[in-house]
Amino acid sequence: MPESELNNPGRPVRDGEELDWSALDRVLKQVIPGLGGDPLVSQFPGGNSNLTYRLQYATDDLVVRRPPFGTKARSAHSMIREYRIMTGLKPVYSAVPETLYYSDDESVIGSEFYVMRKVEGAVIKQVLPPEWNLDQAGCRRFCVQFWEKLIELHQVDCVAAGLADFGRAEGYVERQVLGWNARYEKVVTPDVDRFSAVQDWLVSRMPAESDRHSILHGDYRIDNVILAHDAPHDILAVLDWEISALGDPLMDLGNSLAYWMQEDDPAELRGLSMQPSMAPGMLTRDEILALYTERTGMDTSAFDFYLVCGYWRVAVILQQIYYRYFNGQTSDQRFAGFGQAVQNLGEHCQRLIDA
User: Fold this and answer.
1) Exposure of 255 by Cβ count < 10 A (0-12 exposed, 13-18 middle, 19+ buried)?
2) Same fold for the domain at 4-117 and the one at 123-354?
3) Are 300 and 288 spatial neighbours (Cβ–Cβ below 8 Å)?
């Protein structure tokens, strides 16, 4: 698979992840006008949890999202949350796909699901496409605009978006810390540590309640945005909103920077890179934090807590996925090394705390 998916072609559906295509087709033709004929079905190869399928009709190009098979934390794979946030944001934050339909009728494909219209553009994985010919200045421009799109989201008026009741912003940090700790305890496997010291440090270092309340994406990365083919600096759509929320925006930034690897990171950390954050010209984490501080005027002096929390959250997410692999709930070999990745992340958190 090329590391940049310029045309998002999709691939044959993975074994064990097939759906009842006839039942899905019948429902879609009832709720989306103009669909005709049989769809060409494929599956997007990206993503480690929720499953994403493409149904290409002669008259429309649709994307269907559903949770993974097997045991999972329902709140971490909520399709209705993703559907509602995208629908509400579209009028005030254009960088979301057009949503078309949501259903919680599990008799159709075995789970809740939603449908959106496919956005034509480029989804970037580990490297920027060489055909874009981005020099260091071009990479820097791309990087700044990528982070400014997150800053723009954090400045959206949730009331204007009809999302004031999307969640309880107060107490968000505490709920996240206690929640991720509890989730980890439920999915610990014998081959990874419990990292009790990391969990205890996060509980003891939680900042005082803040009045900084924003719409949070929850998983903002380069591989979760769609870029224009002819203008790669333009972000057409931000994807994967299922763990979005209202809360402290520095939590969102910490989560995103935990995915942002740079050349001076330990080798085992750089090995987890899922995006071209180390391309020449890209900003460092410190530079991104400075940009965020300048654009928002927020006090980011205690950001070490948010960054450690971000790394720990990534570790828990990977452990949730690894737990399903370890217990035979999925045979997807992409997940075989996730246990060691969790170990590496937990040890990195402890090093940051010790420093």
Assistant:
1) buried
2) no
3) no
SS3 340: helix
Class of the CATH-defined domain 123-354: alpha beta
Q: What is the pLDDT at residue 209?
A: 80
Name the β-bridge partners of 320. none
Tokens of 234: 């333009």
Q: Which residues contact 304 (CB under 8 A, 6 or more apart)?
A: 352
Q: Give me the count of residues in the chain.
A: 355
Q: Which of 197, 189, 51, 63 is nearest to 110 (CA)?
A: 51
Q: β-pairing, 4-5 with 113-117?
A: unpaired
Q: What is the distance between the alpha carbons of residues 118 and 55, in angstroms, rounded to a whole number? A: 9
**What is the pLDDT of the chain when averaged over all its residues?**
91
What pTM value is reported for the model? 0.86
Q: What is the pLDDT of residues 218-229, one digit of tens each?
A: 999 999 999 998
- Work out the pLDDT band at 130, boundaries 50, 70, 90: confident
Q: For residue 279, which of 150, 131, 123, 143 has the smallest C-alpha distance? A: 143
Unique residue bearing structure tokens 């979301």: 96
> How far lies 212's CA from each of 150, 251, 296, 297, in Å?
15, 11, 11, 11
Domain 4-117 classified CATH 3.90.1720.10?
A: no
Per-residue pLDDT reduced to its tens digit, 44-97: 876 556 899 999 999 999 999 999 887 554 555 679 989 999 999 999 999 999
What confidence category does residue 212 fall into, taking pLDDT thresholds of 50, 70 and 90?
Answer: confident
Range name among 115-119, 169-173, 232-236 with the lowest pLDDT average = 232-236
DSSP string, 238-277: E---TT-EEE-HHHHHHHHHHT---TTS-HHHHTT--S-T
CA distances from 291 to 154, 244, 276, 298, 307 (A): 14, 23, 19, 11, 16
Q: Token pair of 69, please?
A: 């098979």
Is residue 297 pLDDT above 90, yes or no?
yes
Q: Which residue has the tokens 């439920």?
A: 186
Domain ranges of the chain: 4-117, 123-354
- The partner residues of 214 in beta bridges, in order of sequence, read 247
Which position has the token pair 């709930």?
329
